[in-house]
From TrEMBL:
Pfam families: Metallophos, Pur_ac_phosph_N. Transmembrane segments: none annotated. GO terms for molecular function: acid phosphatase activity; metal ion binding. Gene3D superfamilies: 3.60.21.10, Purple acid phosphatase-like, N-terminal (2.60.40.380). Keywords: Signal. PANTHER family: ACID PHOSPHATASE TYPE 7, PURPLE ACID PHOSPHATASE. Residues 140-335 form the Calcineurin-like phosphoesterase domain. Residues 33-130 form the Purple acid phosphatase N-terminal domain. This is Metallophosphoesterase family protein. SUPFAM superfamilies: Metallo-dependent phosphatases, Purple acid phosphatase, N-terminal domain. InterPro entries: Calcineurin-like_PHP, Metallo-depent_PP-like, PAPs_N, Purple_acid_Pase-like_N.
């Protein structure tokens, strides 16, 4: 007797000429942990958050952690923590997201962890390291928009950055990780492009305009249904903007993350973030201050929707008042750097106010209109990654192309009672800028 399932299979083989095409409804859903990613929900010095997902809900999901040694096994020494469980139903499919925050971690220590369930599947045991003493040197990676052709082209920028700086404290993505924030397939691409690295090095993600999109039945675009499920981020921002507006103190640096998409949605939202930004910049003792958001504060790009004077009017005076060191942005799909773009302050020669950076990691490229140029150094048609290194009173910024060519380089040196000393190691006056194949800085019209 042939079973009903066998009848279906034989029927499919006949209809498809012997090629077995299994309908989604008959596919077994996996309980294997995937999309494992490290972020910080709390103090990045003594905690570590991990998130993962499965296609099928698993019983009693947990994460296990123990100090790492060279010896294998020893699972009996691991501490087991229950996971928070959330789900996303989107595009006709459902996925389950799990998260755990490890607390009370020792500084400067390598830990071993895994995620999963005793009743189903485990991930591999994976290592991460906690931050050492506050005065110790550290670096982090900064990547601009990936957005399009994420796996085929964006992956090389991510992997080049990780290969160049394998010991970086974290990787910062300045928005537009994907083109459609509600697309499961695009987030799958993003995780495939990042590979296993996200399970070993934490990331700090910034919301871009493409992390917002429309869902069926809603008139207004909304933040990605996956954002708060797949990233555990601080909730110390304004109410309603938790996990997209936040700050964290890492060693001698305060890192402030803003949501420029939400700020541009209304004057009220702009004011809310501006007041919050004032408060977190005014009240901290960290030596260095870095602010990041998606939309470029200044623009010379040759595409539409690039200039945001309301954002500039609201945030530039605050950044200058509180002597922010770096402002890291994306959106314009070019590389740009300026150290003298000021509004309310006068900066002496050889010193710098906030240094504004724009970069792009993915393949979508705009150009720079010469008449609107605001930057000291620029690049077009170039996939980039950057590293920021802090060594006490010295900050080193390095920008590389995806073929590991050093393209831009400058240092900031803290000076008591003055602006930062600015040392430009690569200048566009002496080092040619990357252009399009026709030699122009703007895109050819076809």
């Amino acid at each position: 007797m042939i079973s009903p399932i066998e009848q279906i299979v034989f029927g499919l083989l006949i209809l498809t000429g012997g090629v077995l095409l299994i309908p989604e409804c008959l596919k077994a859903q996996s309980q294997v942990p995937e999309h494992i990613i490290l972020t910080w929900e709390d103090d990045p010095m003594t905690t570590q958050s991990v998130t993962w997902r499965t296609e099928k809900k698993v019983p009693d999901p947990v994460a296990q952690i123990m100090k790492s040694t060279a010896a294998p096994y020893g699972e009996g020494h691991a501490k087991t923590l229950p996971a928070k469980v959330q789900s996303v139903e989107n595009e006709g499919a459902k996925a389950y997201y799990y998260s755990v925050t490890f607390t009370g971690l020792d500084r400067g220590t390598k830990y071993l962890y895994r995620v999963g369930s005793e009743e189903s599947d485990w991930s591999a045991w994976t290592q991460f390291s906690t931050a050492s003493k506050s005065e110790d040197d550290f670096s982090f990676i900064y990547l601009g928009d990936i957005q399009n052709d994420i796996f085929s082209w964006g992956s090389r920028a991510i992997r080049a950055a990780y290969d160049h700086a394998p010991d970086a404290a974290f990787a910062l993505f300045a928005g537009d990780c994907v083109n459609d924030g509600h697309s499961n397939d695009q987030w799958m691409e993003w995780f495939d492009a990042s590979g296993y690295r996200t399970s070993m090095m934490p990331i700090v993600p910034v919301t871009g305009n493409h992390e917002y999109d429309h869902l069926p039945g809603l008139d207004e675009s909304t933040l990605s249904v996956y954002w708060q499920k797949q990233f555990e981020l601080p909730s110390n921002g304004p109410r309603g903007l938790e996990e997209s507006v936040f700050y964290m103190d890492y060693k001698d640096m305060r890192l402030v993350v803003l949501n420029s998409t939400a700020a541009l949605s209304s004057a009220q939202e702009m004011q809310r973030q501006s007041h919050w930004l004032q408060s977190v910049l005014a009240d901290h003792s960290q030596k260095w201050t870095i602010v990041t958001f998606h939309h470029a504060l200044f623009t010379a790009r040759d595409g539409n929707h690039g200039d945001y004077p309301d954002l500039r009017a609201a945030w530039q005076p605050i950044l200058e008042k509180h002597k922010v060191d770096l402002v890291l942005m994306g959106h314009d799909h070019v590389y740009a750097r300026a150290s003298k773009q000021t509004k309310t302050i006068t900066v002496p020669e050889g010193e710098a106010g906030p240094v504004y950076l724009v970069s792009v990691a993915g393949p979508k490229m705009y150009g720079v209109v010469p008449e609107r140029r605001w930057m000291d150094r620029a690049a077009v048609n170039t996939q980039m990654y950057q590293t920021v290194t802090i060594r006490g009173d010295l900050l080193e910024f390095r920008a590389y192309t995806v073929v590991d060519e050093l393209y831009d380089s400058f240092d900031l040196k803290k000076q008591p009672g003055a602006f930062n000393k600015f040392v430009e190691n690569i200048s566009s006056k002496t080092t040619p800028e990357n252009r399009f194949p026709d030699g122009k800085s703007v895109r050819s019209k076809k």
